[in-house]
Design a protein that fits this description.
This protein has 259 residues and is of the alpha/beta class. The protein has one domain: Alpha-Beta Barrel (TIM Barrel). It is 34% helix and 27% strand. It is built from 10 helices and 12 strands. The protein has an 8-stranded parallel barrel, surrounded by 6 helices. Strand 4, helix 2 and strand 5 form a beta-alpha-beta unit. Helix 1 packs parallel to helix 2 and helix 6 packs parallel to helix 7. The chain is globular.
Length: 259
């Protein structure tokens, strides 16, 4: 079995790491550069930096923060939020990111995926997807609809179908976030994670709902995810990266233990 990855998410707004519940009531929890370095030194496998103010506010992503984070860590580092063009991707990659994550812009302009993959390689292009449980229908047969603009706007698109289309366009990885579970610390949505993971041939990162180490065990085994994204459980210092990896390893979930 391939080793599972543990990824910490840093949602950044106005230069501060912030955390909310279901994309609302965000509070600042620290400096993103210092937090990135702490998680890197603590043994995290990868980091994701989302500029959550860039897309809804139509602002440019904070390249200076990207550059300062990249100077301090030496693990894969993805950046998303406010990336609307191939040139935006290029700027972020030149600032030190290893991958770019596109969400709203990919839905609005699917060709952005293909062009980004052609220019930089599929391994650099991550599809960020916000999915909400809405019930099965003809338009949304999986029962999960894709939302954009920071989970504020419904698209009418089926999550599984969109994942498959994105793979055909050249995306190299999918970060699947459950809007319903986001920030609740009540566990990942195993159903949607399993559905998307089973429908595509590329890695799927589960996001939204992590609160205890057993939640990661469940989504990496029952949910068939290749990696798990966490935020609150380490931002609030209820768990450490080392604690989580030891828990998973002891229960037969292979992790990268070179920390």
């Amino acid at each position: 079995m391939l080793r599972k990855r543990l990824i910490v998410c840093l949602d950044v707004r106005e230069g501060k790491t912030t955390k909310g519940v279901r994309f609302q009531d965000n509070v600042d929890v620290g400096d993103p550069v210092e937090m990135a370095q702490r998680y890197y030194e603590g043994g995290v496998d990868e980091l994701v930096f989302y500029d959550i103010g860039a897309s809804p506010g139509k602002k440019d992503i904070m390249i200076d923060v990207v550059r300062r984070v990249a100077e301090r860590i030496f693990i894969p580092f993805a950046v998303g939020g406010g990336l609307r063009t191939v040139d935006d991707m290029r700027r972020v990659l030149l600032a030190g990111a290893d991958k770019v994550s596109i969400d709203t812009a990919a839905v609005r302009s699917p060709d952005l995926i293909a062009e980004g993959a052609r220019r930089f390689g599929s391994q650099c292009i991550v599809l960020g997807m916000q999915a909400r449980r809405v019930g099965e229908s003809n338009d949304v047969p999986s029962g999960y609809e894709v939302y954009v603009e920071g989970a504020r706007v419904a698209t009418g698109m089926d999550a599984v179908r969109w994942a498959q289309q994105a793979v055909e366009l050249g995306v190299g990885e999918i970060c699947l976030n459950s809007i319903d579970a986001d920030g609740t610390r009540a566990g990942y949505d195993l159903q949607v994670t399993r559905m998307v993971s089973g429908a595509v041939s590329i890695p799927v990162i589960a996001s939204g709902g992590a609160g205890r180490p057993e939640h990661l065990r469940d989504v990496l085994t029952e949910g068939k995810a290749d990696a798990a994204l966490i935020a609150s459980m380490v931002h609030l210092e209820t768990h450490t990266i080392g604690d989580i990896k030891r828990y998973l390893s002891a229960r037969g979930v292979p992790t990268r233990m070179d920390w």
